[in-house]
Amino acid sequence: MSGIKSLADELRDSMRKGKPPQANEIPPAEPPKDTPKKKTETLERLFESIQNHELTGRERLLIRLDDKTLILLKQLKVAKGIDMTKIISYSLHQFLKTHPELTRYIKEHIKTLDL
C-alpha cells in the first residue's frame, strides 16, 4: 500500500513542478480533433439553417413519431425556439436533396403506372 501511495505522491509532485512525465508514467491523452468550440459553431450553423428554412407549402400531414423523438423535438422547441414542423420539413428537404436517386426512382415508376 505504501508503494502505491508513494507513487501517487511522486506523480502529484511532478505535476506541481511541471516536469514532463517519466518513461514509466502514462503521457496525457491527446485532445480530440473536434474541439468543443468547433462543434458548437457547427451546431449553431445548423440551427441557423433550420430557422432560416421557409415553410412554403400549405398541405398538412399527420405523422407518427416515437416517444423519444417527440420528447427531443419538444426540448429543442424550448431550448432553441425551433418548431417541430420546421425541423421535420428541413430534415425531409435535406434528406431528399442528399438522395436524388429517390426522386428519380419515383419519377421513373410514376411514368409506368396507368392512372
Distance between the termini: 84 Å
Content-based structural category: mainly alpha
Please state the overall shape, judged from the principal axes of the Cα atoms. elongated
Cα-based radius of gyration, to the nearest Å = 27 Å
The residue ranges in which pLDDT falls below 50 over 5 or more consecutive positions are none
Strand content: under 5%
Biased composition (Basic and acidic residues): 7-16
Region (Disordered): 1-39
Could you explain the architecture of this structure?
Residues 1-39 are annotated as: Disordered. By secondary structure, this protein is mainly α. Helices cover 64% and strands 0% of the residues. The longest helix is centred in the middle third of the chain and has 17 residues, at 36-52. The N and C termini lie far apart (84 Å).
Structure described in brief:
Helix content is 64%, strand content 0%.
How does the SSE layout of this entry go?
Blueprint: H1 2-17, H2 36-52, H3 67-80, H4 84-98, H5 100-111
Sum up the structure in keywords.
about 120 residues; mainly alpha
